[in-house]
Design a protein that fits this description.
Mean pLDDT: 94
Shape: globular
Number of helices: 16
Largest sheet: 9 strands, mixed
Radius of gyration: 26 Å
């Protein structure tokens, strides 16, 4: 192994070419930040793995320029409107495979008005095996020659000015060094955390899971084309099996490919045998002879893990390198993409000299609060499946098939003596809306750090912090969605008013003084700051449906400042005596360096 090339330089070295690393690359390209991606793996994911892409994540992927391509390949909305629980899949009686209960999920395929009012995007679904190639192709288009798979980070050394990394080209069997000002660790935790001494702490371990990725025809056995996730409580074996269609061209029960998850107790040796896993799946689903083309069988732990810190010097961890969650709720991949959305604009601001490096210190407190919540929610989702719904059903691997079926039949028997049992089962399943309808967790998470200027107002009351998202412009909240028109009636979502890497001051229709101050400040300092007024009748842009008026929480002469990641950084309810000084003071705190107000002529 020899070094055959001179040292290469870049502003940001991204280690890892999965969802978080590729999103970081695309966002940095849109921010004109020079960077390089290296991944030890030969290609993108060969496993379906994560697949749910929530509304916030789709907004970020639209920023990256790849959302439309994803939408074209995603599960149609009509095929992901619900999740359902069944008495297994197939078997000798009409009750084998019978539906126990159905609940709406992730905005009910676009039918839930609360989800529609939160974002211009619907929830989408595309397995990583098909998502990541789209992301890689787009990242390479934006940064030709800068996305390198089969290139493995082997060491790194930091100093006050940057990071020197050694990278091995695995195919050419050569090494080279990369000098970067910052390094993003997005390698799933394989290498980077260990090189900087970061430890991972377990938050909870629920069970072990074996997953089969198969091609098979389940169209005669599976029900309900609008169901994405099928939770099958097997009478035959007394265990729960999850089936998820994976397309790629057909969805619902006609899907060509599926992933099938079956759970085992921790350290159960049966999970380690491919033959045993296949036998257990066939027995549980009642399909001893159904043709299955098995692509791969993998194992993983249903657990939550959090890094003890997200940064060390100039190395910053994102995605699975910083946190890992159970898949229940679909918060893993989406959290990684949201990590880099928080981080990349801050890196760009520091590299441009608009902010001091202290701005980067806000990454961990902002993200950790939502990530710990996501990890806890994922664990609670899993526990409700295994620890509440399962016992409520009364099905067990220790019982015979007849005994399990008898327990399941009590749900639809209609007998008075079974009414309480039925009510308990349906209640436990309805409670799983905390996984399939957690809109406030997915979209309403907030930030608190030095890059947010509090305005002294209390957090709005919320009767359900998991399921109910209440839009707000309180500093630290995400910018509420609204449809905005220009003078010609051209309509766009308010998110599109925030340009890449730029702050946006939004004033009420009488907020001319705020806009004038923002423009003067941008001109005198060179900061990336735009300003406009939004009103229903008057303004630079218009609020045709009064969506913005319902949620803006400022007076007609008030204003708020939105960060490049579309979180509200500062707010003034009404007019100010000295708008320029107020804005300069806010930006000084946000950017962690002095910003001088323009001197009056």
């Amino acid at each position: 192994m020899t070094t055959t090339t001179p040292e290469q330089t870049t502003d940001v070295l991204i280690v890892g070419g999965g969802g978080a690393g590729l999103t970081a690359s695309m966002l940095l390209s849109r921010l004109d930040v020079d960077h390089l991606v290296v991944s030890a793996l030969p290609t993108t994911s060969t496993l379906p793995k994560a697949h749910v892409l929530n509304q916030r994540t789709m907004e970020i992927l639209e920023d990256a320029g790849v959302a439309e391509a994803i939408a074209e390949r995603s599960t149609p909305a009509a095929n992901m409107a619900a999740s359902a629980f069944y008495a297994g899949l197939a078997g000798p009686t009409a009750d084998h495979g019978r539906r126990i209960a159905r609940i709406e999920c992730w905005g009910a395929g676009g039918d839930d008005e609360h989800w529609r009012s939160a974002s211009a995007w619907h929830q989408l679904n595309l397995p990583q095996i098909r998502l990541e190639p789209l992301m890689k192709d787009h990242a390479e288009t934006l940064a030709p020659g800068r996305i390198r798979f089969g290139h493995e980070l082997t060491s790194l050394v930091q100093d006050d000015d940057g990071v020197t990394a050694t990278v091995r080209d695995r195919e050419a069997q050569t090494e080279y060094t990369v000098r970067a000002r910052y390094l993003i660790g997005a390698d799933g935790g394989r290498t980077v955390p260990g090189l900087i001494g970061v430890r991972h702490e377990g938050l909870g371990h629920v069970t072990e899971t074996a997953t089969m990725h198969v091609s098979a025809d389940f169209s005669e056995l599976a029900q309900d084309d609008d169901v994405l996730l099928r939770w099958l409580i097997s009478p035959q074996t007394g265990v729960a099996v999850v089936m998820v269609p994976m397309g790629p061209e057909r969805w619902g029960r006609d899907s060509e490919e599926w992933v099938i998850h079956i759970n085992y107790p921790v350290d159960d040796p049966r999970a380690q045998s491919d033959e045993q896993v296949e036998a257990d799946v066939r027995a549980s689903l009642g399909i001893p002879d159904l043709p299955l083309e098995i692509h791969k069988i993998t194992r993983w732990s249903v657990e939550a893990v959090m890094a003890d810190r997200y940064a060390e010097g100039r190395v910053i961890l994102v995605g699975d390198a910083a946190h890992r969650h159970p898949p229940t709720g679909g918060l893993g991949l989406t959290s990684g993409i949201q990590d880099v959305h928080n981080l990349t604009w801050k890196l760009a601001a520091v590299l441009r000299g608009d902010a001091s490096p202290a701005l980067l210190d806000t990454y961990e407190p902002e993200r950790r609060s939502s990530l710990e919540r996501n990890a806890q929610r994922s664990l609670e989702n899993a526990v409700n499946h295994f620890g509440v719904i399962g016992p409520a059903l009364g099905v067990s691997h220790e019982q015979t098939e007849a005994e399990n079926l008898a327990c399941l039949q009590r749900i639809w028997s209609g007998r008075p003596e079974d009414a309480e049992h039925r009510a308990a089962v349906l209640r436990a399943i309805r409670a799983q809306s905390m996984e399939f309808s957690e809109l406030n967790v997915e979209y309403g998470y907030t930030y608190a750090s030095a890059a947010i200027v509090p305005d002294g107002t209390p957090a709005p009351a919320n009767p359900d912090e998991v399921r109910i998202y209440r839009p707000s412009t309180r500093p630290g909240a995400p910018l509420p969605h609204a449809w905005i028109d220009d003078a010609d009636g051209a309509r766009r979502p308010i998110k599109d008013l925030v340009a890449p890497g730029r702050f946006l001051l939004i004033a009420g229709e009488e907020g001319d003084a705020w806009c004038a101050a923002a423009r003067e400040l941008a001109e005198s300092t060179g900061l990336p700051l735009d300003a406009l007024r939004i009103g229903h009748i008057d303004g630079d842009l218009f609020d045709p449906r009064l969506m913005w008026a319902r949620n803006r929480e400022i007076d007609p002469d008030g204003a708020l400042l939105v960060r490049p990641d579309r979180f509200v950084a500062w707010r003034r309810i009404g007019a100010g005596a000295d708008p320029a000084s107020a804005l300069a003071q806010a930006l000084s705190q946000i950017l962690a360096r002095p910003v001088a107000a323009p001197v009056p002529a």
